[in-house]
Every structure is written in C-alpha cells, then in structure tokens.
Design goal:
Layout: H1 4-12, E1 16-21, H2 27-39, E2 45-50, H3 56-61, E3 64-72, E4 75-76, H4 78-91, E5 99-106, H5 111-123, E6 127-128, E7 133-136, H6 142-146, H7 153-172
Parallel strand pairs: 1-2, 1-3, 3-5, 5-6, 5-7
Antiparallel strand pairs: 3-4
Length: 175
C-alpha cells in the first residue's frame, strides 16, 4: 500500500496520453478517435489534438504519444510532417524516454510513412511502446484516394486496443 503522501501525489498527477493526428479523408481521424476511446479509462488523461493545433507545450505536458497520420505519396502526409518539423527542435532533449506508437492510414503499404515517423521519434529518443499499425484502404485511383474513408471494425479495434495498452502501461508505470 502506498503511503498517504505518495497516494496524494499520484492522484494530483494523472498521466497524460497525447494523440496527435492529421486526416484529410477521415481514415486517420477514425483511427485516432478509436485509440482515444480505448485509452479513456478514467485513469489517464487523453488529449486528442489535430497536428495543426498542437504545440510544444502539449508534447512537454504528455507522458506518452500516439502519432496518427495518413500516408500520402508513400510518405508522411504533409500536415503531419509540418507538425514534426515545428516540434522537433522545440522539444529535443526534453521528452527523452517517453513512450510512443505510430498509426498510419495507407492507400498501399504505409511502410515508408511508418519508417519516417519512427525515425523522427528515434531522433527525439522516444521509446517505442508497440509495433506500429498500418491500416490499408487499398485506395489506388484518384476517386478512391480523395473519397472519405470508412475504417473497418477490426482495424478500429486494433487502434482501440493500442490506445488501451498504452494507457494501461502509463497507469502501471511501465512507460
């Protein structure tokens, strides 16, 4: 059993999971929202922020991260890359060791977008908490690429489970 002072400090300092996402056609947004649902147990503060609205203070205040993005032209979507560009030096050496997971909504394979995001997280010296998830929509024509996406229940469940696992790790002190 924790001493009363330690218990009080624990209650005052709830862990925070920051989910930063960008989505143009809704797929990555659905994935981010599913992860947020999974993480929302009441024991962790979950913050879901669009990449354009995120700032260095958001990253500094969080204990772990989920970065959720679409793949565009076999790379990180521009708005998400811009987020990483804005934040990289602002938080460099200030978030070392924090846990992260990458989720990618891809039209083809998503591997390069994952590789790019993970390389940025390596530069921040973050700790990979789980394997990245790629949801492939198989959108290969201009019409399908530009269409609003509907992510299947199984894929949303994987995102939800990832959010839940990251939150549980924060609560248990694993991350």
């Amino acid at each position: 059993m924790l001493p009363q002072a330690a218990l009080g400090n624990h209650l005052l300092r709830m862990k925070t999971l920051l989910i930063v996402y960008h989505s143009r056609t809704g797929g990555a947004r659905q994935m981010a929202e599913a992860a947020a649902r999974g993480a929302s147990t009441g024991e962790v503060q979950v913050r879901l922020i669009h990449a354009a609205d995120a700032c260095a203070e958001d990253l500094l205040a969080a204990d772990a991260y989920l970065f959720v993005m679409p793949e565009n032209l076999a790379a990180i979507a521009g708005a998400m890359k811009e987020f990483f560009d804005r934040m990289f030096y602002a938080v460099l050496d200030r978030i070392v060791g924090r846990a992260y997971v990458v989720l990618v909504c891809a039209g083809s394979d998503g591997a390069n977008a994952v590789r790019q995001a993970e390389r940025i997280c390596t530069g921040w010296r973050l700790r990979k908490a789980a394997e990245s998830i790629v949801v492939c929509t198989h959108a290969q024509t201009p019409q399908k690429i530009l269409a609003q996406k509907i992510i299947g229940a199984g894929d949303l469940e994987r995102c939800e489970d990832t959010g839940a696992a990251l939150a549980a790790g924060l609560v248990l002190g694993v991350f």
